[in-house]
Every structure is written in structure tokens, then in C-alpha cells.
Amino acid sequence: MTSLSFFLALMLGICLFAWARREKYWTKRWEKVSKTLGLRTRDAAMLQDHAAAVFLSRQHAEQQAEQRRVFESLLDEISQGLVLVDDHLRIRYANAPLIKLLQRKEIHVGRPLIEEVRDHQISDLVQESIAEKRHTTRRIQMLPSDVGAGSNLGGRYFIIEAAPLAADVGGGAWLMIQDVTESAITEQIRRDFVANASHELRTPLTLINGYIEMLQDDAAKVAPGMKRSLDVMEKHGKRIARIIEDMLVISRLEDASSTLNKEPFDVGACAQDAADHLAPMLEGRDARIEVDFPKEGGLLTGDRFYWDQVFTNLIENSIKENTKPGLVIRVSGEWQADTCILKISDNGIGIPAHDLPFVFKRFYRGNKHHSSQIKGTGLGLSIVRRAVEAHGGTIELTSSPGIETTFTMRLPLQPA
């Protein structure tokens, strides 16, 4: 036994001995008082039980109060603002960081949440979480009109999380507020840089490629060696041009609220157009594309321009990555009550499990052993994911190498 263990055991023994002595002392004192008052044994026992119950109840209340003080002290040390509200959105508790985040002098317990946070986006989120009984997360921007006079919160960004509380702890909900203004501004600067740089590079590169094509015609007549050099320049010039176009598409999708032109369109026809466009890539190969959509009801509300790119990128990716014969690419759509499920699958080589978490990242190229032989920018799947998410959907990738690889997209359907 170590010195620390011995010390702890000794302290525990002393505490137990003191407790036993104390209990024995108070028992004897109670018996003496009972005899002095002339109480019967039964009455004395009842009073003793009552006194013990009162003592234990008071001791339990003191323990709860102490635990509450400890928890509140811990919650005051975190950087996020935390609020507990009841079913009527009245504040039951608020930690100290919330006061600093909202730039208030104090938060009044018992008052409605909207009166203290002064932003309907926050109260609406909490109310939605309670009504739908689910955890909800949203990023909001507090505008100058949403905050009080003299506040500097206008233009700041916050991550808001809310979830309902169980009935046995009083119901209501908890709300957590985190200031992410710095990271949001940094991300916006990055987006602006990518968009501006891509836009500025597109025009001069177009001119360069145009002059290369003009020189190729003359070089074919004069110097064959020069022609080969110009061909290489043309090849890489077009690749850079495609990277720039893809980066511009991603930049537009990152601000999808102002760029999407949503309207109902036939998804099956969109997929078939993409398959027909890529059909020349299958000439001379043992491969085919199957499009399976319902004859009626294959409608989706969205921006068809981006869905053309989604289907084209996914189908083209399958064609390029699978060079062996017998390739079958299947594009299908299924409509449920409030969800549209779109799938693109193939029976090719598949994607290793260690690559799956990274395939949607920009410029990521799996299958390094032959990726240098495959033309592409490495941005196709990143565009696909951003386009799906911009339409409020999700995309999932599953793969069993050599058997089947499937991209599954789930999109919410708007009421007719």
C-alpha cells in the first residue's frame, strides 16, 4: 500500500470513528431528555424518528444547494452562454458568460427569453426545438435592428443550439450560444479571395488559350516540335481553366441563398441529359448507363443548372475511375411522402474505406496509383456535395470495393 493509499485509509477510518462517536453521543442525549420529560418509549421513538427525518431532509437540501453552487461555478467558467427556460420560454437559469456575449449588465431570471436576448431568431429556435422535440443547431447573424441601442452586437455571428429537457427535470429546454464571429469573418475573406482570384484569372487565361490555338495552326505548317509544345500548353491551359470554373461554381454555392434559381423541373430528364452528354466516353467500351425514374411525379424544386453538374460529375467520375469492361452505372430516383431519394451507383473497383471520409474534400484524389492518369480537377465531388446541401439535402457514400459504390442523396420535397 502506497503512502497516499495509507493516508486515505487513515482519514476514512478517523471519519467513520468520529461519526460513530457522534451518533452514539446524540443517542444517549436523546434518551436522557426523554426520561427527563417523562415520555413513553413509543412516543420517544416517534419523536426521535421525526427529528432524524427533519435532520436528513435538511442535510439533503444542503447537499443539493452545495451541488448547485458547484455546477453553477463550473458553468460560469465555460466560454459559451447557457440558458435554461421553461415551457413558456421564461428563463430559469443563465450563466455568467451569457451576460458578456449579449453585452448586458445582467440577465433577469423569470422574464421571457425574447426580452433578455432581444432576437427573435433565438427564441424561435428554442420554440421550434420544444415543439418538434429534437436537438436543433443554427448559425445566425445578429443585425443592428435585432439588438438594443448602444450594443455592438450588430453584424456578429453566433452558433445557437437548443434541445428540450425531460419532464422529470421541469421540462422546457436548454439553449447554448457561442460567438463564432472571428471564424465567420475569416471564412468570408477566404471565399471572397477565391471568387475574386478565380474571376480575375479567367479572362487572361482565356486570352492565352486563344493565342495558343492560333499558334497551333501556324506551327503545324512550320515546326512540328513547336506544335507538340503548344499541344501540351493547350492541354494544361484548359485544365487550369476548368479548375477556375469549378472554383467559381463552389464560391457561388457557398452563397447559395442569393444564387439558386429554384423552380420545379423533371429530375429524370436532367439525369438522362447528363447520361446522353457523356455517352461518347463509352464508345468502344463494354459499359452502359441505366436511368431508372418514375414515369410520373419525377419533379424536384431546385436549380437545374447545378443538378446538371451533379449528375454529370457523378456519372463522369464513375466512367473515369472504372476502366475495366462490364461497367454498369445506374441512376435512379424514388419519391416518398416528403423526401426525394436519388442514387448513382456502379459495379466498378470501388473506394477503399480509408478514403471514404475524404472524397468530398477539395482536390482530394483517391487511388493514388493511377490518379495521375485520370483527367480531372479534384473538385467534382466537392461541387456535388455543396450543390446538394445548398438545396437542403444530404449526400452519403457507401462502397464495397469490386461490388458496388453508391452515392445516395436525400432531398426534402416542398408541398405542392
Kindly summarize this structure in a few lines.
With 416 residues, the chain is of the alpha+beta class. 51% of the residues lie in helices and 19% in strands.
Structure write-up:
The chain has 11 helices and 12 strands. It has 416 residues and is α+β, with helices and mostly antiparallel strands. The protein has a 5-stranded antiparallel beta sheet, sandwiched between helices. Strands 7-9-10-12-11 form a 5-stranded mixed beta sheet, covered by helices on one side. A two-stranded antiparallel sheet has the order 6-8. α6 packs antiparallel against α7, α9 crosses α10 and α10 runs antiparallel to α11.
Main sheet: which strands, in order across?
Answer: 2-1-5-4-3
The count of DSSP E runs of length 2 or more, i.e. the number of strands, is 12
Average pLDDT, rounded to a whole number, is 75
Shape: elongated
User: What class would the helix/strand composition place it in?
Assistant: alpha+beta
Question: What key phrases describe this protein's structure?
Answer:
416 residues; five-stranded mixed sheet; 12 strands; elongated
Give the topology.
Layout: H1 3-37, H2 41-75, E1 81-85, E2 91-94, H3 96-101, H4 113-117, H5 120-132, E3 136-142, E4 156-164, E5 173-179, H6 181-222, H7 224-254, H8 256-259, E6 263-266, H9 267-278, E7 287-292, E8 299-302, H10 304-321, E9 327-335, E10 339-346, H11 380-390, E11 394-400, E12 404-412
Parallel strand pairs: 7-9
Antiparallel strand pairs: 1-2, 1-5, 3-4, 4-5, 6-8, 9-10, 10-12, 11-12
